[in-house]
Amino acid sequence: MAEPTLTQRPLIAVSRAVLPGDGVHRLEAIGTVVRFSEPHPPNPQELAELAADAEALLCTSNERIDAWLLDRCPRLRVVATASAGSDHLDLAELTRRQIAAANVPGVLTETVADTTWGLILAAVRRIVDGDRFVRAGDWARVDLDVMVGLDLHGGTLGIVGYGGVGRAVARRAAGFEMTVRHYDRETASDEHSTWQPLDELLSQSDVVTVHTPLTVETRHLISARELALMKPTAVLVNTSRGPVVDQVALATALQEERLFAAALDVFEVEPIPLDDPLLELDNCIAVPHIASASVRTREQTVSLAVNNIIAALSGRPLITSLNPEVQPKAPQQVNPISI
Predict the structure, then answer these.
(1) CA distances in angstroms from 113 to 68, 110, 165, 236, 310, listed in the order given
(2) Annotated catalytic residue: which of 270, 280, 298, 325?
């Protein structure tokens, strides 16, 4: 490991070969950027080798940043994740080592809410099922009993987790004249939704959509007991984090037709194994963690992560810091950069 000098540009590790937008090019203006060159996400050893001499790391939600990795990257001063979720970051360990950390809250909100409604509609009205039906050559007649789904307008929407995305989903429900209920640690209601205890919400909702972060308390928040409370005509949607929902319990409920359908953007293991029981079910829609995958939002996500790195390397507070008690210090060889 080379000894740093006052004229040495900071080394910045990027965990992807290609990222949307011009953010990485802006990093190249202030430092030496090393990128992971393979098309797949780096495993822990590959990431440790990439960032061994780095002062900054731009990662995604696929990479676990923990004590094992940090032991192998002793020069890190800032870790910025291009994701709203931060459960992959050991924040306590980063703070203990005085390494600044940041995520990108707010950037994804409206796009994830849009996707959530796309999944709701697809599940309730059997849109994906209908597409498969046509492509398989099974559409032999037009009649009243072909590909019948459920109504959405006038129903009850239950939102689990009422942060930015949950609120954005609730606002959109007005267009469907739905009654909206939400469950959150905060028991406040607003003009778009009324707070309700979780069990009541699950038992009364026609659609339940999950938007809570993954924590120790929310892991398997929706499990066999909770699924048993839901209507057999209900739909479950998850665009938060996979482990919030117990996939084994969900697969069983769908197999036994104790739920009408589920639509999932996230899974307990990603990518989801091809032999997972959920993928065998026609009443389960599975998409590859793309709730925030619009061109503009992905570019904004990377741009904010880059801005956090530039701020840290220039000795300024991070824009969206996860541990603001850690104050970045600018090295002598880095000139402050305007963001």
Answers:
(1) 35, 5, 6, 15, 29
(2) 270
